[in-house]
Write the structure tokens for this entry.
Amino acid sequence: MARDIDIREGIDWTTVWLYGALVFFGWLNIYAAVYNPEASTHSFSDIISLSHNAGRQFMFIVASFFLILIILFVDYKVYDSFAYIFYGIIILVLIGTIFLATEIKGSRSWIKIGTFSFQPAEVSKVITALALSKYLSTQGVSITKFRDAFVAGVMVFLPPVIIIMQKETGSALTFAAFVAVFYREGLPGIYPALGIALVILFIFTLFFPQWYIIIGIVVLCALFWYLFLKRYERTQQNLFRLIGVFVIASLFVFGTDFFINKVLQPHQQKRIQVLVNPDSDPLGAGWNVTQSRIAISSGGVIGKGYLQGTQTKFDFVPEQSTDFIFCTVGEEWGFLGSLIVILIFAALLNRIINLAEKQRSKFSRIYGYCVASILFFHLLVNIGMTIGLMPVIGIPLPFLSYGGSSLWSFTILLFIFLKLDAHRSYKV
């Protein structure tokens, strides 16, 4: 029988304070992003007014505290025992969203209930993390076995396939974060290496004609055969393997062209064009990134000061309180403020990984790595797209970006792990 514990003693307060710092700083910057010096009275009622994003975010933050309380007081065994049931429910919800959601900017991923909108894709990452942790922690299951790896892969990539059907490619791409979890659980290094190679190949297909890349692949295969394989290793079996690599790489090159031109939406295609050539559409698809970079660079070392950002005040950057919240940080808080935010995130990720390694339960350890991987992927891509190093795929910066769906999903993701960790030192 589980020993009753005082959750105040079991909870990792360092992680809680890091979470609180990010949420509070995010709220300050959301207010800055929608700040109007002529209309604002600087009163508390003005700050929490539901007429603008800062007030609604304040409501989301308050609701998050209630979610935290629910998570912490629910029996921790629920997250393990009902993981598959939760997964089945979210799959049905994602499918239903395709037919029930209101179309917004070409995407059918938001369910509207009165004035409130909710995006199931955000919560699906949390539930997939639970289901994956449940499966990989099952006795006898190993990611090194092809069958088990295949089942885990289907479990992870089924939700993003449905999300892509909702025309919400950005949210679907975030599921790639789970590959890091596979690697931590024993997936041979060759597979992540192949993944990196495919990413590099994808980037090359954006810059060079297809047939140039095919010729380059042929040359690389030939060099590998004659220069790196010793004479006694030039067997028929290795030749067939090399031919297989060539075929797969070639199919990937042509498949990339099909994906960009047939699967992605026109605005997403524009974003990739802007990534390749930032000046190709400076007043259209390139506007966000260009203005974001201007805002961040104009902040200098110490920033222009809170509520003093000119790019912010005059709405040069669209979506500045959501996907591009980091440019508000860069403009008003400067390099030092941006560095502090990144360091807080780094401290949070380091703390989660350290706690994950200390878990006695395999389920808790795997889930901890899921949390760290998802947060890191969002951090990397979101900041990367605000400074022009990543395509604009529309994913939020954890805990800082405006939005109830994103804040609640990240809060649930993190505090389920803290709940599991709180029972680490107690025998069951």
Observations:
- The longest strand covers residues 107-113.
- Residues 325-357 form the longest helix (33 residues).
- The beta strands are 102-104, 107-113, 116-118.
